[in-house]
């Protein structure tokens, strides 16, 4: 009898989990025993596990064996006194690198990276050792202890609040190169060997430095030859980390040449397309990349209107490479989405397709105008929500995101480094993951955070907020989600999923013994 009820309830649980839980609880309460029925307890536990991300994945024998291995490895990790997800990533990185769970995650085919930014996708060491060692590279030192770069065939014009330009090559010949290069590195990244809590005591201090790193790399990465190689290097790093597809958020700035001439936005977009094609030619199992055009969220309404119009034009002219549109920059200090409501309604008004991929809810300013962004993003039919860190505090928005199947792009390391959460076990995505809310894992600005690829963020998600309960099914679901929630067409998704599945099967068979 009990098992009949249980079966019925389990069928129901799949359709209406909350009702089923209530019924099960009532059954337990009305049983009249002082000790709750262990079988029903077991059923409730299984019900809850089945509700998590990947809870309904059917696992092969080999996958189950790999899961058992992973579980043991994770158990060992959780017991550690220096548990990496509980620590700041800068302090945890070397521990993560030596973790056997991490090495498995590196080998795992992770699908797609759907939330990464153009000028923070590459390890800054590449910028130092490759970009700054090219000829004609000039550097100047700003009044506020930062640096700027420019490549120029002539002596470049001075810029305000900066020292005269020095040819880097000559400077290196005169100065201690190690010290100079270390100070350049220090300006290109947030990563530090010092105590990160001391160096970055508040959101303001960390964002101040974060924005400075972008200004410092600007002159390097917007130089045409570096621009192409940088993007190629970014694809290489993702590929090496077993990521097969990318959706990159790009400012599409003017790109300059050695003689000072510049290229427009269409050229920049076309260059992304060309480099992607070259990369694919050299790596046939890489699926490709698409671009989400972004604009700073401080601009005025007329500028936003102009930019949205340009985005519609680019979308029309480059439908295969261009995925859509987004706003970037510190949400707390920027204008809320609602401020731009007229501009953002233009595509709909004109019957033009322009998909939105809004950053929203990357904040802990509860109850402010900015905090409404998650709901507004959904009202503007966003295709995904970037971060959605505040989503749990908005039950209506959360419900809509689930109902409309709008995935949240969770970037754990970014949220920790930018000081929204300290201990990644407490990341709000723990809740989202426990109830299979549509979500993907991404890395935001791996270059600036001292990470690379997706594996570090997968580690924090799987070992940190996934807890012991997340399993191989969760990983499988997260990887598949990254393809399913991409901007690829249904047919492309099918192709990508088939290719991912082949790699996945290979990964599983190579890692069970
Ligand atoms: C930088 O990388 C590019 C592309 O891999 C390579 O062709 C070039 O020689 C490198 N330059 C330096 C200075 O390392
Ligand atoms: C350059 O500076 C580093 C670090 O301060 C020091 O260890 C090294 O000896 C110096 N090299 C030279 C050639 O002075
Ligand atoms: C950035 O560069 C300036 C100028 O060389 C230097 O004084 C400063 O120490 C560097 N910052 C870091 C964090 O290395
Ligand atoms: C809007 O911003 C642009 C670019 O910063 C500026 O050129 C323009 O004058 C501004 N317009 C208004 C109405 O403030
Ligand atoms: C969002 O989609 C709904 C339903 O398709 C539509 O009615 C609405 O006008 C759209 N809103 C915007 C701002 O695109
Ligand atoms: Zn972002």
Automatic annotation (TrEMBL):
Signal peptide residue numbers: 1-34
Keyword annotations: Hydrolase, Metal-binding, Secreted, Signal
EC number: 3.5.4.4
Protein origin, superkingdom: Eukaryota
UniProt xrefs under InterPro entries: A_deaminase_dom, A_deaminase_N, ADGF, Ado/ade_deaminase, Metal_Hydrolase
Keyword Metal-binding in annotation: yes
Adenosine deaminase domain ranges (all copies): 202-495
Cofactor field: Zn(2+)
Reactions the enzyme catalyzes: adenosine + H2O + H(+) = inosine + NH4(+)
One of the Pfam families matching this protein, by short name: A_deaminase
A cellular-component GO term for this protein: extracellular space
GO MF annotation, one: adenosine deaminase activity
Adenosine/AMP deaminase N-terminal domain span: 39-105
A GO biological process held by the record: adenosine catabolic process
Subcellular location(s) of the protein: Secreted
Keyword Metal-binding: yes
NCBIfam families hit by this protein: adm_rel
Family per record: Belongs to the metallo-dependent hydrolases superfamily. Adenosine and AMP deaminases family. ADGF subfamily.
Protein name: adenosine deaminase
Gene designation per UniProt: ada2a
């Amino acid at each position: 009898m009990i098992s009949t009820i249980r079966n019925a309830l389990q069928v129901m649980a799949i359709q209406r989990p909350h009702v089923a839980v209530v019924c099960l609880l009532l059954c337990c309460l009305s049983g009249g025993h002082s000790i709750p029925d262990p079988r029903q307890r077991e059923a409730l536990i299984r019900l809850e596990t089945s509700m998590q991300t990947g809870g309904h994945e059917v696992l092969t024998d080999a996958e189950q064996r790999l899961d058992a291995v992973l579980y043991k490895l994770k158990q060992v990790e959780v017991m550690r006194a220096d548990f990496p997800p509980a620590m700041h990533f800068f302090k945890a990185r070397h521990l993560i690198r030596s973790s056997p769970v991490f090495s498995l995650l590196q080998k795992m085919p992770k699908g797609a990276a759907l939330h990464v930014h153009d000028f923070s996708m590459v390890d800054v060491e590449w910028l130092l050792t490759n970009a700054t060692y090219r000829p004609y590279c000039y550097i100047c030192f700003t009044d506020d202890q930062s640096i700027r770069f420019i490549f120029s065939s002539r002596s470049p014009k001075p810029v305000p609040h900066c020292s005269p330009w020095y040819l880097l090559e000559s400077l290196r010949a005169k100065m201690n190169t190690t010290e100079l290069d270390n100070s350049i590195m220090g300006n290109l990244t947030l990563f530090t060997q010092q105590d990160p809590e001391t160096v970055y005591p508040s959101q303001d201090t960390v964002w101040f430095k974060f924005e400075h790193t972008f200004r410092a790399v600007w002159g390097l990465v917007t130089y045409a030859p570096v621009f192409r190689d940088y993007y190629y290097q970014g694809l290489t790093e993702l590929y090496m980390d077993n990521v097969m597809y990318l959706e990159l958020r790009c400012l599409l700035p003017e790109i300059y040449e050695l003689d000072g001439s510049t290229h427009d936005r269409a050229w920049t977009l076309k260059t992304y397309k060309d480099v992607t094609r070259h990369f694919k030619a050299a790596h046939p199992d890489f699926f490709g990349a698409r671009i989400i055009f972004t604009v700073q969220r401080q601009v005025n309404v007329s500028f936003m209107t102009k930019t949205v119009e340009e985005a519609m034009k680019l979308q029309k002219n480059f439908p295969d490479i261009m995925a859509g549109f987004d706003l970037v920059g510190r949400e707390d200090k920027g204008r809320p989405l609602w401020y731009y409501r007229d501009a953002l309604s233009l595509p709909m008004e004109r019957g033009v397709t322009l998909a939105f991929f809004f950053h929203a809810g990357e904040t802990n300013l509860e109850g402010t105008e900015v905090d409404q962004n998650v709901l507004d993003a959904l009202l503007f039919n966003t295709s995904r929500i970037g971060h959605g860190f505040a989503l749990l505090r908005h039950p209506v928005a959360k419900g809509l995101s689930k109902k409309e199947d709008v995935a949240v792009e969770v970037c754990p390391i970014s949220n920790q480094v930018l000081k929204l959460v300290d201990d990644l076990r407490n990341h709000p995505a723990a809740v989202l993951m426990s109830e299979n809310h549509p979500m993907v894992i991404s890395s935001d600005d791996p270059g600036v955070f001292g990470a690379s690829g997706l594996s570090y963020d997968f580690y924090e998600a799987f070992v940190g907020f996934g807890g012991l309960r997340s399993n191989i099914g969760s990983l499988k679901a997260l990887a598949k989600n990254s393809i399913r929630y991409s901007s690829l067409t249904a047919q492309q998704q099918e192709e990508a999923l088939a290719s991912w599945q082949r790699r996945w099967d290979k990964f599983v068979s190579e890692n069970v013994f």
